[in-house]
Known about the structure:
Layout: H1 3-8, E1 15-17, H2 20-27, H3 31-45, E2 68-70, E3 91-93, E4 99-104, H4 122-140
Antiparallel strand pairs: 1-2, 3-4
Helix pairs in contact: 2-3
Residues 78-79, 107-109, 120-124, 127 line the site of flavin-adenine dinucleotide.
Amino acid sequence: MSLQYMLDNNVSRYVQADTLEELAEKLGMPADALVKTIDDFNSYTDGETVDPLGRVAFSGIKIETAPFYAYPRSPAVHHTMGGVLIDAKTRALNLSGEVIDGLYCAGEITGVLHGANRVGGNAIVDFVVFGRIAGEQAAKGE
Ligand SMILES: Cc1cc2nc3c(=O)[nH]c(=O)nc-3n(C[C@H](O)[C@H](O)[C@H](O)COP(=O)(O)OP(=O)(O)OC[C@H]3O[C@@H](n4cnc5c(N)ncnc54)[C@H](O)[C@@H]3O)c2cc1C
């Protein structure tokens, strides 16, 4: 899908503008804040200024040549780490590690598989594999 297609068909609400001020207006955000953010970013890319957030891996490409493109984004929860402890049969365990009878858990509600970081794609395998086991275990009542 090309950028032009996205602009022509309002995909993801992409907007195009010849100035940053016009871009800000189309996005419904304060123009001075956007211009300052871009100015600051540009100054970090060539090491002119040290990024206060400590980022160093910039491409070296400044955002300064029109036309400018943007689309609105908002934060969302992607995956919640941590959760109910289960055993290999998906039986929920209490704080002492004892099985809680009749309670089976799988997927994102569990907190066993991913450790401190989740590798992309693992969550789907997690709920497919352990969801099946949980269903079988619950049907057998084991
Ligand atoms: C935008 C986005 C992109 C993602 N991309 C990936 C990816 O590429 N690869 C990957 O591995 N993971 C990805 N994830 C994470 C993954 O989708 C989730 O971790 C996974 O869907 C969790 O599956 P789940 O079955 O445990 O929970 P859910 O998918 O949240 O299912 C829980 C279900 O329970 C239902 N429910 C809730 N309360 C009740 C109730 N009281 N009674 C009955 N039903 C109820 C809900 O409606 C829901 O259908 C992504 C997540 C997001 C948000």
